């Protein structure tokens, strides 16, 4: 990989993003996220060659939120194997991230593991009768191992704030429970889920953590090759909720976004990219993060297609 | 009213019902209701003339459940007046009693006060910042006053059982809360709601309690005449969930059913009828109760049309 | 009936309506209806006692449109009996008059005979393999017989205009056909349907035509008593599409509206009321017609409840 | 590319498929397709290196049906550019290929160009006021040019059969027209659409026709590189209707299926693959074709991820 060209692309994009006059809207549904200053942008790329390139605020920790769904899914598949797919589907939902409509029409089987309902089922699978602390230790341990960085942590305040305002997630979890697709009390699974979402890391750390999805020699070997491909396929088709098709159309890369403004994108065989900017677009994905990812994919001629 | 003819109709219908070979299925979602012996049938009519006629097990108390929604609505309208209609609609929903789909499409405004979501909003309105005990005292007090019978009570075990298994109602309440249409914590409003539903009374007591809806001189004067009409209109269009049109088509009477197997029907100007049989049909309404009500309406030529 | 009081009510209401500063919006989807001057209002009452009282433009013919669905349903039930209910339901739809969503979810069985999809099935049942002319002769003949007035006619220009702009009805008819619930080619059934809707009559004629639904001695005996009740029940629960609950709540009377601005309401045992004003409200029902009906019901203390 | 290994994979897969004891169900909705013998299987690969490898019935012509949607989309984008996206979305629908529900909720804008509603809009865009014959000449010309084979033809009998039984497509087209998203009379656009779908070619011809989507030097240069990527992205996210996520999960390749049993899959930069077997699975995609594609992707280690 031409790292000089890549560094130049990152710098150019970062300069352009920092000059933006529309940074999007910071998530406002919990106070802990609402008070993040919006005008921040950072990007980091971990290459299959083992290099790390960054630009902007690549070392500022942010709330990973739904980006953690990728790691949780990898863990749950490791624990349950293909039996997980009896509890959650693999199709794009065509609906918003927090929609409950599909759940009623399809009797409590979420369409895919990246919408909220599906991610709650995944965390419920990981919980598996253990005290939440143990499940969280496994999740955090996986992310730390992937990043090779034990300083990644869970922000309890964000988790508690989420719990206090997470009525829509409580609606989903209770509905799943009513349909027999939640093994623990909703407050137990959600307590775990909110703490998982409250993992904080920087773009640099996230790019490192994503290396196991590149599928190249020398990368952290946490998941077997066929499963890596499947995780990438799910990220491409379902990683941005009802904006997934649009993101695939524009960037051609598998990726997962979070309401904290982070996006993890994978360039199979080549790189793991993390971008962060806390202001969101209408789909609830990072506004500048999405734009930056599209510019980077174009500049580097990165696309799976 | 020809009370001899009415008594004969009640007796004939009761004999026929007791000979039924299909009593329907007792509600099984909570243990407290699941263990009720199904082969029971009772009916009672309170006439505008002040008479009470009964047949069968008219003095066996049963769980009123959703039949209480009528009384709660009368109370909430008394407290909030037409402002209540900003929080809940007046249209048939075309959906099951516990559906959450409509709630998402219409941003947390339940279609009507008789589906579960709407009834939860109504109870939330009655709660009004008070301790649940006070709200429950008002609700129970209203039913007792309507029936003129202070022995009507709340079965705490049923309420607690409902609370332990009411995940779908928790889903609805949390969704309402997420939409800003629930003023109290979901567990507070639902605690009140489950206790309201756990009111127990006999067919005789229920028929007496329904007299205020007849709209005739000498009946308990709890609600003004125009509101009585409106309550009856809502019962006719929405009282049996997605089986409301069918019930109106067959009996021509405003009525409200409950999952405990009770049905309260009003013959405007003439009578209040309560029927009870715990086995349910596919819509979740009393199987023999529905059939008996249709036979009675035909035998007495009772219909609002 | 106190006809003097009734006449006075009609006059007062008419005066008040004529002073309105918001007449609603005339239906604009076909040119033939769009050019009707909006500021017109007429009302007529045919009493069970055989009297006819009118006020305003009670002799101006207007396009009956969906009001004809009541007459068509009476005819189809006469032909097919209860077998008709295998093709169409009896429940309020909770959806707009021309919605196709419910049809897909319920495999081509329309919720009730008064939404467009259901009315198309009803006309298809009447058509019954005959040339459309014969079916139309039966429909027009029924309305004329009910009104005792052979001058009622079909406006071909309106029918042709409807046919040229009726893509949504063509979508419904083709969908029904695809589901196996339409016996004729869509253009054949719709040709008949559009001509049925294009029947024109005045408020006076419509009030007379509705007398068979009053269910009182001396009224035209076109339909047996139990069926009259059922037709009224359907009008009350489904007669105003997704505004049916609201209309029942406000007036307490079974009624059927049409996009031409007409409403036929029945006061069981007492009267048939027709009101007309071409401007519509948001539900597609006559704005002043709806208001006038509510005022009249209140003034005369008319309500089935 | 190791063509010896590829040929061996094709032969092994074909032998295995031919020994299958479940060939799926041939499409039965039109007589012309229903009478195709089900036990047929053919596969062909056109490599970026210019080679053609086949196995099984690779020279039997079959009805391309929805596979033509890819070519039509390429043409429409060539004509209208990004303005096309004002008429049709780019998101997976989460619904069946012929669903009309989403169309009503989203006011006549189909979710993507590969579900029927979206493909009808695409053909309507190509039609562009011209006689259908001219539009069809352009579509057939494009496919012939892509394949470098002027013997590819349209089967009129299939088109006429489709027209006679295509009520659901007529429902979609009329609904689009009612929403203002169809520029021609439904029968005109659908006449064109049905003829487009009736293009017949063999697996060999289809594999050749798909080469312009490989995006490699020396391939037919019909569409610019960025657009090739976008077409592939849409095929991956939306190419198999509500089975798109599953197909992407299993094979990791962009592909488009047709009800005639054909599938065109692209291995970006490397190959264009066509497989055909007329029996379908529950999603309406070729049963053995889907299985074969998964086996081939695994055998050749082909995946975009």
TrEMBL record, chains A, B, C, D:
Residues binding substrate, per UniProt: 66, 116, 162, 169, 193, 241, 259
GO molecular function: glutaminase activity
EC number: 3.5.1.2
Statement: the UniProt record of this protein carries the keyword Lipid metabolism: no
Enzyme class: hydrolase
InterPro entries noted in UniProt: Beta-lactam/transpept-like (IPR012338), Glutaminase (IPR015868)
Catalytic activity of the protein: L-glutamine + H2O = L-glutamate + NH4(+)
Source organism, top-level taxon: Bacteria
Annotated keywords: Acetylation, Hydrolase
Similarity section: Belongs to the glutaminase family.
PANTHER family: GLUTAMINASE
Subunit relationships: Homotetramer.
The protein's name in its UniProt record: Glutaminase
Annotated organism of origin: Arenibacterium halophilum
Species lineage: Bacteria, Pseudomonadati, Pseudomonadota, Alphaproteobacteria, Rhodobacterales
Gene that encodes it: glsA
């Amino acid at each position: 990989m031409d790292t000089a060209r890549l560094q130049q692309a990152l710098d150019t994009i970062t300069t352009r993003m920092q000059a933006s006059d529309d940074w999007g809207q910071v998530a406002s549904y919990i106070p802990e996220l609402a008070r993040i200053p919006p005008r921040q942008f950072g990007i980091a790329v971990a290459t299959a060659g083992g290099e790390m390139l960054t630009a902007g605020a690549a070392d500022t920790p942010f709330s990973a939120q739904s980006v953690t769904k990728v790691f949780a899914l990898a863990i749950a598949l490791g624990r349950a194997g293909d039996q997980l797919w009896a509890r959650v589907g693999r199709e794009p939902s065509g609906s918003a991230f927090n929609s409950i409509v599909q759940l009623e029409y399809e009797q409590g089987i979420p369409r895919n593991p990246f919408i909220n309902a599906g991610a709650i089922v995944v965390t419920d699978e990981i919980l598996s009768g253990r005290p939440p602390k143990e499940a969280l230790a496994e999740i955090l341990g996986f992310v730390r191992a992937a990043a090779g960085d034990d300083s990644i942590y869970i922000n309890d305040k964000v988790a508690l704030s989420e719990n206090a305002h997470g009525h829509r997630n409580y609606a989903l979890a209770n509905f799943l429970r009513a349909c027999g697709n939640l093994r623990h009390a909703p407050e137990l699974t959600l307590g775990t889920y909110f703490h998982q979402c409250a993992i904080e890391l920087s773009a640099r750390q996230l790019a490192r953590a994503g290396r196991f999805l590149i599928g190249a020699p020398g990368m952290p070997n946490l998941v077997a090759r066929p499963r890596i491909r499947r995780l990438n396929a799910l990220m491409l088709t379902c990683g941005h909720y009802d904006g997934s098709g649009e993101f695939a159309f524009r960037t051609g890369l598998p990726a997962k976004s979070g309401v904290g403004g982070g996006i993890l994108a994978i360039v199979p065989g080549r790189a793991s990219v993390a971008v962060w900017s806390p202001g969101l677009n209408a789909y609830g994905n990072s506004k500048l993060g999405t734009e930056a990812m599209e510019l980077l994919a174009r500049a580097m001629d990165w696309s799976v297609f």
